[in-house]
Structure formats: C-alpha cells, structure tokens
Design brief:
Low-confidence stretches: 224-231, 758-781, 786-805
Organism: Parascedosporium putredinis
Catalytic activity: alpha-D-galactosyl-(1->3)-1D-myo-inositol + sucrose = raffinose + myo-inositol; Hydrolysis of terminal, non-reducing alpha-D-galactose residues in alpha-D-galactosides, including galactose oligosaccharides, galactomannans and galactolipids
Radius of gyration: 30 Å
InterPro entries: Aldolase_TIM, GH, Glycosyl_hydrolases_36
Number of domains: 4
Keywords: Carbohydrate metabolism
CATH architecture of the largest domain: Alpha-Beta Barrel
Strand content: 25-35%
CATH topology of the largest domain: TIM Barrel
GO molecular function: alpha-galactosidase activity; galactinol-sucrose galactosyltransferase activity
Distance between the termini: 48 Å
Helix content: 10-25%
Length: about 800
C-alpha cells in the first residue's frame, strides 16, 4: 500500500455509525510507514546524497565519512566563506536542499540567544529561529539528521528555512581569513543511531580544533584534590537555591532565616547556592543589565559583615551543609564591570558593543565594560581565590550567552574563547567539578567548551528558566528538557533542569521528571540517579499531538540493568495509552521482566518481548505522570517448577532501582537461594519471588544486615502484590545496632527456600547468643528457628557459587 493517512474508528455493529478518534479525542490520523519488506538495507553512496537531499546546492563539497554507529551513512559537507570586512562579521545564507524531496515529520533543536528548545513539524520545514540540528522522517521510515557545526576557527553555522520548505545554512565568520563552514548529514533506520553518527563526528572535529587552544592543554587536567567523593556529594545531595524563594533583594539575614526554617522543619540540605544580588554592583540604573560589578566583596549594605563572615555563620549554624556556591555572570555581572568600581582600576578593561540578547528588545545595542583578553585569566584567578578563602567551594556562572551577543568580529574572536577557556581552567583549579554553566546554549559555547571530554563533566542548564507562576510553562518545561537531552546527552555535561518548588501542584510532576533523567534535586539525602541521562523516546511526536510524553532512562550494566520509563501528560485532558514493553529502553528478549508502576504500586506478571500481553496500560489526567521500571528476572529450576526472582531495589522511590549498588543471586545445594545486595540508601527493599505465595516468612526466610540477623518483624509480604517480599531495611538496620561498614552502602543478605523438598544444609553459619556464646546452625534454618534459639546476630560463612552477577 502507498504511504498515507490512517484513520482509526470503532463501531459496535454494522448499523451503527463509525466513531472516529480524530473527532472524539482530537488525535490526528496516523501515518503509515512502509519499510523495506525484505529487511535488507542497501547503504547509500556519496553519489546518492543528491537523491536524498533534493536540489542539493553544488556549492557544498560533499565527502562520505566512516560512521561510528551501525547501519548509518554519514557525509560531511563544506563550503568557504569570506573573511571579515572591517570589523563586521561576514554573514551569508547558503541554500542546502530539500530533505527527501518532502518528508512526513521533523524534529528541530532550535536556538534562542540563551537556550535551546524543540520544535516539531509535519510536512513543511518552517523555522522562525536558528536551528542547531534537524531530523526529517521519510515515508519509508528513514531518518535524515542534519547538524550545523559551530565553534571551529571562529565560524558559526545554523539551520534556517527558505519559505519553500528547503533548508538553508546561515554562516557567520569572525576570522580575518577565509574559513570553511561544515554541515554533517547522516541517515539511518533508527533516529538515535543517525543522530549519534553526526554527534560523534562533530565531537571529533571539535576536539581536534580545541586541542590547538587552551581547551586541550594540561591546565584542564583535574587537580589531585578533585576526588571522586566530591562529585558524589555535589551531584547527589539535596540542594537549596535562594533565587526563587528569597527573590532579588538578597541579604545575609534573609539567608540565615530561610536556612533556620528548613533546619527547624527537619530539612537538612547538603548544598546551598547563593544566587544573584549578593555582589557589590553599581546600581546607577534601574535596569540590572546596565549595572556592572565593582568589587569581589559582597554588597556592604546587605552583607554588612562581608562574604567570609556570612559563609562562616552558615556553616556553623548548618553543619549539614557541605557545599556553598555563589552566583556570578561570565562578565562579572549582567552589565559587565563598572568603570567606577575598584576592579576597573586593578584590571585592564575595554568597552564592547553588544546586543541585549534578552528582554523586550533583544536586538537593542548597548556598550558594556568588560575585562580585556590579556587580564581575563588573572581576573578569574583572583576572583576565585577570594571566594575560596571566604569558604565558597562552587560557582554558578550565568549569562554565558553574552559572548555570543558581541557585535564586532574582533571582540567575538578575541574574547569568546578567552573567557570560556579561563572560566573552565580556573573553576577546575579552585572548585573541581562544582561549577554550574548557565544560559550557555549558544552553539559556539556548546561545541567549543562543552563537547571535549578532557575534564570531569559539570552541571549545565538544559533549558529556559523554571517559571512556577506560569501554569502552562510546567508541562512545557518537562517536554522541552526531555527533547533537549537528545542533543545535550552527547556533551560533557550533566543536564540541569533548573530548580522547582516542592509546595506546588506540579511539584511531584517535576520531581518525577528530574529523578528518572538523573537531574540535580536542588539532609544528607541520597539522590538515586540512573546510569543514563533520560531523554524523550518519541522524537517526532509534537507537543500538541495529544499523546503522552515518554522519557526513557536506564540503570546498570547491559542486559543485567534496569530499564526505566517515565510518562507525562503534557495536555489539558485525560489520555489513555497502551505502551509496549519494547518501549522501555534496554529491554531484550533474553529474559522475562517484572514491571512496577510508581504511583499505583502495581506489579506486573512476568512479561517477555514479543508476547501479545507485553503491554502496559496507563491513564493519566492533567498533570499526571507514571514511572515504569522493568526488572530483569532470573530463572531457577526448582524441580517440578520454574522460579523467577528479581531484586526490585527500594520500593516507594521514584528511581528505587538506582539504589542497588550491587546484586548477586547465589544458590546452595540444599535448595536455598541467597540474594546478596548492597544498597546506597535506607528504605524498603523489594524482592520479587514467583513462588512466594507458597512460602511463609517464619519457615522459609532468613535475612541479615552486615552479617547480623534482622528482626523478623521487619520482613513482610507486600500488600500490593503477593509475589513481592518487603524488608524494612531502615528499621532492620536500627534493630541490629546500626552497623557501619567500610563504605556508605548497606550490605543485605536474604536467604529463602527454592525447593520445597530442601535437603539438610551443607553450609554453616555461626551465631552469637546472649546466654550461650557461639552456636552453629545451618542456613536451612528459618526465622522461626533463629528466634526460638535466641539468635541476635550472625556471621554467615558459606560461599556458594555465583550464578548471576
């Protein structure tokens, strides 16, 4: 059949009229994709590109490249652009062509001055802003990905539309010499492999170019004091930022009172960000974008004792706060450096012309005083040394987009990389990876400063700000970030989705999105971050298509890890969908999966890819969300039956699977099965056991923490599913005396009956009794036996073979 629209409708009998889904729910007709029937894909050659991109402009020199991803074809297109005339950047719009000669769907990563956002289309390519990367879906299901490369030899490129649906490349050259503009194109049957093909090749080009500048020098090697434990504390603790709660009139007493309220409420944050308005600025204008930084010291009016005394007081009153970061703009403040301040007398400055970039008149020109190229490194070194001496150990560096608003070619050429290099090097020297990059999604910054993997990754704002008082912004914020992550996941950053309010009707919605995507959650609370950065799974579904947003993540190793899927209703009406198990990233046909739902606590029967029943039904109202986690099961032969088991991690947590540091199932000849697991946090451990309804806790189970037998009352069968064993690890840990091991992990062992005809045990355990000293029991014993004999702790000495790790 020819590709076309697919309407969907139902009727109860032949005499009844059809009820069309497009009329009753507003969901548009589907599109039929006809793939190659024989499944054989013939890789296109260099000569095939003109048939893929219709009317390909002959000005582009085309070269076929070796793709680093399977089943994809990659091309590099280049053309020359003249050098600057005078001090004005050379700009030119160069036609490219029409993808597929027409396409069905597209996704575009679009750029504002400060951040990126996704835009979707259906049949015509129309952009009102510059695009970074675009993907076009053909009628045969092929994905064509086009990437405009920036940040190499002072050249920027972006994708535009020409009014007819064709792609045009806007190129800007800040160099005095003629340079090359580069566009990368890849095609493939899978969107992610096609996108990875252009991103991996772009990274190679960007890293090669950066290696010739400061970005590639030894200065970016991590100092010895940047220990891995610091990263865990900085990334994985609960943080508090002053911006949304305390506003723009910041003062030391406001911070003290806010922290006291948190402390008195039992909320002990581990990191604090002192946001905008702590600095000494020249408040000559009512517009903060016209005011410059005067001194490193805090504002003497609002911080009368100075920054060092403020930080000392915070740490003394809040010993649970391990990290304190402060905000500043890349140029110092929004208005750069004040020519009337102390800093202007210590460092060489210059006046530059720039566009305002944001606000009601973003193209309005203004003059800003900034630190000159020759003094930028010294400025940052002195500034960060001052902050470190005050007790600050991190920075949030905002308004980085301003280097992209400079209007003269010489300023852009000389200052952009100087500021980016100096900030990267000096922040690493003083703060390790405790730096946040904000408003930095300009192409030149992303490709030049965030692509190379020659330093530990830093937090980087992934989208526009969080606006708690704009109702329509909440689903869009989650939607935009999930789609932006399709691109930013390839950068050397941890995407930061910005802060969110906990007392808000969308609070759980935001929390769920951040948990499954591995974002920061701004007292010593452990953040359970999955191994893989979450991203949107349906790149061609539009925001207004009345479908659920699906965000996929994964935790753990290949095949043994745990697929995670978050679904979010971004529409204003109730939506019901059937989601195939295959939609969860990382699922395979090698095992059955047990799927849990976070909000309903439902547990599925074991599901396998390809089975007709391997579907997840979900209905979500407005602001609704759900998190599905698929746990791979292990199969054991129990004589006349098959037993499936799975470690479910911590129950009741949005990403409880990420709490599992290690998990091993061991089997003994006596028919007992043993689970060894290390947990990153306290909570309720869940274990799926398919034959649990035939067992009893008193007769068939033993569990220990750090080798000590836990109280039987801390073990129970879940009220949500009779196949799930629950262990209250927190209560059990307290019940055995809160043992402390060599690491932060909690060592839990669970022994249970595998076969009903278990033979006498062959392995022994030694126990300490209150009244008789050492006694020996076999691990075939049960809780009932242990309690009957007064056992209070144990040291298990058996070591049966590991069957799964």
């Amino acid at each position: 059949m020819d590709p076309g629209k697919l309407p969907f409708g139902t009727r109860s009998c032949e005499t009844e009229p059809w009820r069309w889904i497009r009329d009753e729910s507003g969901i548009a007709d589907g599109t039929v994709i006809v793939r190659n029937i024989d499944g054989v894909t013939h890789p296109p050659t260099n000569d095939d590109l003109p048939s893929i991109v219709q009317d390909l402009n002959s000005r582009w020199t085309t070269k076929s490249k070796v793709s680093q991803t399977p089943r994809t074809q990659l091309w590099s297109l280049s053309t020359t652009i003249d050098g600057v005339q005078g001090d004005k950047p050379t700009e030119e719009d160069i036609p490219l062509g029409l993808p597929w000669g027409g396409f069905l769907r597209l996704e575009t990563g679009l750029l504002t001055v400060t951040c990126s956002a996704p835009v979707h289309g259906k049949s015509k390519f129309e952009l009102d802003r510059d695009g970074i990367i675009c993907s076009f879906l053909s009628a045969e299901g092929q994905n064509l990905v086009i990437l405009a490369l920036s940040g190499v030899r002072n050249v920027e490129a972006s994708l535009r539309s020409d009014g007819t649906g064709s792609v045009t490349v806007r190129v800007k050259n800040d160099s005095e010499a003629e340079e090359q503009a580069i566009v990368l194109i890849a095609i493939g049957e899978d969107f992610r492999t096609a996108m990875a093909a252009v991103m991996y090749h772009a990274r190679d080009i960007a890293v090669s170019a950066a290696s010739k500048g400061l970005q590639g020098q030894d200065a970016l090697r991590e100092p010895e004091r940047a220990l891995p434990a610091w990263r865990e504390n900085w990334y994985d603790g609960l943080g508090y930022c002053t911006w949304n709660s305390l506003g723009q009139r910041l003062a030391d007493q406001k911070i003290f009172r806010a922290l006291a309220k948190l402390r008195d409420s039992g909320v002990k944050v581990s990191s604090l960000i002192i946001d905008d308005n702590w600095q000494s600025i020249d408040s000559q204008s009512e517009d903060q974008f016209d005011n410059g930084l005067m001194d490193f010291e805090a504002d003497p009016q609002s911080f009368s004792q100075g920054l060092k005394a403020t930080i000392r007081h915070i740490r003394e009153e809040n010993p649970h706060i391990h990290h304190i970061a402060v905000w500043h703009a890349l140029f110092g403040y929004w208005g750069g450096i004040s020519p009337r301040g102390k800093l202007a007398t210590f460092y060489k400055t210059e006046d530059v012309s720039q566009r305002r970039g944001i606000g009601s008149n973003p193209n309005q020109l203004k003059t800003t005083t900034v630190i000159s190229k020759d003094d930028v490194s010294r400025f940052y070194n002195d500034f960060y040394r001052f902050l470190a001496l005050c007790g600050v150990d991190g920075v949030k560096t905002d308004a980085q987009y301003m280097v992209d608003t400079l209007t003269s070619a010489s300023s852009r050429r000389e200052l952009t990389n100087a500021y980016l290099d100096s900030w990267n090097i000096v922040s690493l020297r003083y703060f390790g990876d405790k730096a946040i990059s904000c408003m930095s999604q300009a192409p030149r910054i992303m490709f030049y400063a965030q692509f190379p993997h020659n330093r530990s990754r830093i937090l980087c704002r992934n989208s526009e700000d969080y606006f708690p008082h704009v109702p329509s912004s909440h689903p869009w914020h989650v939607w935009a970030n999930a789609h932006n992550s399709l691109f930013t996941r390839y950068l050397n950053v941890l995407p930061d989705w910005d802060m969110f309010q906990t007392a808000h009707e969308y609070s759980a919605y935001h929390a769920a999105a951040r948990c499954i995507t591995g974002q920061t959650i701004r007292g010593r609370t452990v953040i359970l971050r999955p191994s893989v950065v979450g991203q949107a799974l349906d790149p061609y579904s539009g925001y207004h298509d009345s479908v659920l947003l699906k965000v996929g993540s994964y935790d753990g190793g290949s095949e043994t890890g745990t697929p995670i899927l978050g679904v979010f209703n971004v529409s204003s009406r109730r939506i019901t969908e059937l989601i195939p198990l295959a939609s969860l990233p990382g699922t395979g046909s090698f095992c059955h999966y047990v799927v849990t739902a976070y909000t309903t606590r439902a547990v599925s029967q074991p599901l396998k890819l390809g089975d007709p029943s391997a579907l997840l039904a979900v209905t979500l109202d407005q602001r609704g969300y759900e998190i599905f986690t698929a746990y791979p099961t292990l199969r054991f032969d129990a004589g006349n039956k098959e037993v499936l088991v799975a470690n479910l991690g911590l129950l009741g947590k949005m990403t409880g699977a990420a709490a599992v540091a290690s998990s091993k199932f061991r089997v003994a000849d006596n028919g007992r099965l043993r689970l060894d697991t290390d947990l990153k946090a306290l909570g309720t451990l869940g274990v799926y056991i398919s034959h649990l309804p035939t067992l009893t806790i008193e007769d068939d189970f033993i569990a220990t923490i750090s080798g000590r037998v836990i109280p039987p009352e801390t073990v129970s069968i879940s009220r949500h599913d009779p196949h799930v064993l629950e262990i209250d690890v927190e209560a059990a840990w307290k019940g055995v005396g809160e043992p402390v091991g060599w690491s932060n992990d909690i060592d839990v062992r669970v022994y249970f009956t595998l076969k009903s005809d278990a033979s006498p045990a062959v392995a022994w355990a030694t126990f300490r009794r209150e009244d008789q000293g050492a006694t020996c029991f076999d691990i075939g014993s049960s809780f009932q036996d242990w309690v009957r004999n007064g056992v209070t702790s144990s040291k298990v000495e058996d070591d049966p073979p590991i069957l799964w790790q």
